[in-house]
UniProtKB/TrEMBL annotation:
Transmembrane segments: none annotated. This is MOR1A protein. GO terms for molecular function: signaling receptor activity. It comes from Ramphastos sulfuratus. Its main location: membrane. It is found in: Membrane. InterPro entries: CD200R (IPR040012), Ig-like_dom (IPR007110), Ig-like_dom_sf (IPR036179), Ig-like_fold (IPR013783), Ig_V-set (IPR013106). It is a single-pass membrane protein.
């Protein structure tokens, strides 16, 4: 999320026409087309997020600026050349890193929250804890996970929340 992504087409010389068919899960489909003989690009229902990546005519890549969860979906590049037709299909999945917060509740327990991640983050504790996870699924497909530290021993003073996620791992420590 927030970064640019580049999807490549089959590179080929002698390109006549290239079409990107974009079918996101959210919103309507759009099409980007390029005709080499006219050196012309047409767009149908595409937002400014979708553009040809500046490159040579032999590499008709699609650049998605500031990727959002709404950009998830199917992307198909169709290339017409004098040697035949070629296509490349993508299924774009967007990773959203969690926002990590660690605090103490009114009972003096550490509370770790990994907010608005996609997919859901995993939470673990040091020292180990038998805590239960609470999950909240948001309308945009992200998930918030909350965990309360439950000490097996009464003399624990410092705890560390470890959040594991495909977009990167994080940790924070607190003394409640």
């Amino acid at each position: 999320v927030g970064n640019s992504s580049v999807l490549a087409c089959p590179p080929n010389s002698n390109i006549i026409m290239v079409t990107w068919k974009i079918n996101p899960k959210v919103g309507g489909a759009c099409t980007l087309g390029y005709r080499a003989d006219l050196n012309k690009i047409d767009r149908t229902n595409c937002s400014d997020s979708f553009n040809w990546k500046p490159s040579s005519d032999q590499d008709p890549a699609l650049e998605i600026n500031q990727v959002e969860v709404a950009h998830e979906g199917k992307y198909i590049c169709e290339v017409v050349t004098i040697d035949g037709n070629f296509d490349k299909k993508y299924h774009l999945t967007v990773l959203v890193p969690p926002r990590l917060t660690l605090s103490c509740d009114s009972e003096g327990n550490a509370v770790c929250e990994a907010a608005a991640a996609k997919p859901a983050a995993q939470i673990s504790w040091v020292p180990e804890s038998n805590s239960n996870l609470e999950k909240k699924i948001h309308d945009n497909g992200t998930v918030t996970v909350l965990s309360r530290f439950t000490a097996d021993q009464t003399n624990v003073t410092n705890t560390t929340c470890i959040v594991s996620h495909l977009a990167g791992n994080q940790s924070k420590s607190i003394s409640c």
